[in-house]
Write a structure and sequence with these properties.
By secondary structure, this protein is an alpha+beta fold. It is 62% helix and 18% strand.
Length: 359
């Protein structure tokens, strides 16, 4: 049985790796051509563009792993049947479920590897890729201008401004607050603020500094004050962090930070549950592919390839619908994230039991 397990694993992982490379390449090229006009007009160096494109590879690879898993399942089983090995193994006393167990085991390994990559390689690469895109290739900060905005400077620093012009490093009516365990520790309330590039700090003009001393507020007016607020304007740009840039632990910390600004963390909760649910897609889609492969066993590999595409996109479409419903508040975050998994797991169980019954 151990030899048979290794044999089926080989039949699974060869088409899996081929499918993963092919699907990743196709989607990667589609995304690259979609951004081609921006890449050609960008002032960034060729090396920066190459880095960006290369760092995008892990993102697309993880996105298409379920498609590669399904294709590997279909190829492994149909190839085994069409070669006549299926009948030979059954004649030797193998039961139908003995053919499934090695494939499900392979899918579990893929699930674990997908989750590990999603928590380590993907956040690091995607975060770096987005930084290159926003700072060098397509620098949005050059024309960003914000009104009535609240920003996070650090773990205990928050600043609000009536106007924030990123390229000029200028704020109108800024209020800088430092938060401690008991609440606001100090506050700078000024008419304007400018970023001092040489000194590496913000300078506040025509305002008042308020400090909490022994439970009472003490005010100190100033015409010009060099602050210890050292976050550059470009780093203050209020970008909503993509969940793919963060691990689950980072998402939790980020949710706590934005909660101080009164921003809803509902979308982050949906994304966090989705990060747990997504890797299990590989196991479920393998279980779904088994009865499908047994029914398509006499058909060509082209049909299997098309079936892999169709089922994978249907599964991912249901996951996207669940995510949208969760973000809109129509469904609780756990239900929205696991809806597709539960639905297709039930379908896989039904098809397997039906095949056993018919067999």
């Amino acid at each position: 049985m151990k030899i048979f397990t290794w044999y089926m694993a080989k039949r699974f992982f060869l088409p899996f790796l081929s499918g993963l490379a092919l699907f990743s390449l196709l989607i990667f090229l589609g995304d690259m051509f979609d951004k081609m006009s921006i890449l050609l007009k960008s002032k960034a160096s060729l090396w920066v563009i190459v880095q960006y494109l290369w760092l995008e590879v892990p993102y697309w690879s993880i996105r298409v792993i379920p498609m590669a898993t399904l294709m590997a399942t279909l190829f492994a089983l149909t190839g085994f049947i069409q070669s006549g090995e299926w009948l030979a193994a059954q004649a030797s006393g193998f039961e139908t479920k003995d053919f499934w167990k090695p494939l499900l085991g392979c899918a579990l390994l893929v699930t674990a590897a997908s989750f590990l990559a999603q928590e380590t390689v993907l956040p690091a690469c995607y975060r770096r890729a987005q930084m290159l895109w926003k700072d060098s290739i397509h620098p949005e900060w050059e024309w960003d201008k914000y009104f009535d905005i609240a920003l996070i400077g650090g773990p205990d620093e928050f600043i609000s401004a009536r106007t924030f012009i990123v390229k000029e490093g200028r704020m109108e009516r800024p209020i800088l607050e430092k938060i401690g365990a008991q609440g606001i520790v100090s506050q700078l309330d000024a008419k304007s603020a400018l970023w001092d590039e040489a000194g590496g700090h913000w300078i506040f003009f025509d305002g008042v500094e308020r400090q909490n001393e022994d439970g009472r507020t003490v005010e100190h007016p100033f015409a010009r004050k060099v602050s210890d607020f050292v976050v550059p304007p470009r780093n203050l740009v209020p970008r909503t962090r993509n969940p793919d840039e963060m691990s689950l632990l980072e998402m939790r910390r980020y949710a706590e930070r934005i909660a101080h600004l009164g921003v809803s963390a509902r979308e982050l909760k949906v994304a966090a549950y989705g990060k747990v649910a997504y890797p299990f897609t590989n196991f479920i889609i393998c279980a779904l592919g088994i009865p499908v492969a047994l029914r398509l066993r006499r058909l060509s590999k082209i049909i299997n390839f098309c079936a892999a595409f169709g089922l994978s996109f249907a599964f991912l479409w249901f996951m996207e619908i669940g995510r949208m419903l969760g973000n809109a508040g129509a469904l609780p975050a756990p239900v929205a994230s696991w809806m597709a998994n539960v639905l297709f797991a039930g379908l896989a169980l039904y098809l397997i039991r039906r095949y056993d019954y018919e067999g």
